[in-house]
Amino acid sequence: MSHDDDDDEGQDNHYKRTLHELQIELVKLQRELIADDVRVLVILEGRDAAGKDGTIKRLTEHMSPRETRVHAPGKPSDRQATEWYFQRFVPFLPAADEFVVFNRSWYNRAGVERVMGYCTEKQAELFLQSVVPVEETLVRDGIHILKYYLDISKQEQKKRLVSRKTDPLKHWKTSPVDEAAQKHWKDYSKARDEMLRRTSHKMAPWHIVQADKKKPARLEFMRSVLSNFSYTAKSKKLAKPDRNIVCEWSADAQLAP
After folding, report:
1. Which among 248, 86, 108 is positioned nearest to 191, based on CA atoms?
2. How much is the pLDDT for 216?
3. Which of 28, 195, 225, 252 has the fewest Cβ atoms surrounding its Cβ within 10 A?
4. What are φ and ψ of residue 144, in 5° steps?
């Protein structure tokens, strides 16, 4: 066995051990959230193949199935297309005790819908003007909103999209939007930058996750979630994210061009 193999095995063991420790910490947190009737909404956004599914799986796999829900919005129905835009998301908001994760969210309107022409520029602008007041209302009503954007490079996205096509276990992830992801890279970057600039606010700021390396990104994302709460027997070490991997968005944040 080479030294490189030893290093890879050591890194993998460290990842598995740390993941297990963080998942235990999440269970500790959730027990207290349930006891205190807390409502939590985690919004996870990012480009196609940024790693949202895998990140959510590790976050939630040992949490209580009764109080934990993941919502991945699909194409709106004909009726939903005529509703107030946020109306379709209201039924999926957390009630007391619930920990809800949106795998993509209302921010589809500022990203994929805008870039792919699924909404008009007028609709996109109305969303950008409306979303902060909507989120502020939810926070004032008692919902904890945590927003994360998983950022990857163009080269890493290309590699992952190719993997989707060649791996039979990932074929369900492929879509026409995937085909356009690289072609419209700059359009997505422009839409991302405007979305972050206009919708990060004090009551629900955006956090950026550098996600080219999946495993470190997952661990630091989980640390960041934990860092947002106070709970009994909290491990300060485990709940301290690496700010080089996860940090609150700011105007000088380093993002893939």
Report:
1. 108
2. 98
3. 252
4. -85, 115
What is the model's pTM? Answer: 0.94
C-alpha 169/C-alpha 187 separation (Å) is 30
- The model's pLDDT over 185-208, given as tens digits with 9 standing for 90+, comes to 999 999 999 999 999 999 999 999
**For residue 128, what is the DSSP state?**
H
50 within 8 A of 150, measured Cβ to Cβ? yes
- The conformation of residue 15, written as its DSSP 8-state character, comes to H
User: CA-to-CA distance for 171 and 53, rounded, in angstroms?
Assistant: 14
Supply 217's token pair. 């990104």
Do 222 and 59 meet the contact criterion of CB atoms below 8 Å apart? yes
Distances (CA, A) of 12 to 3, 5, 16, 219, 241: 14, 10, 6, 12, 19
Which region holds residue 100: left if phi is over 0, alpha if psi is between -120 and 50, else beta?
beta
Which residue is associated with the tokens 């996205």?
157
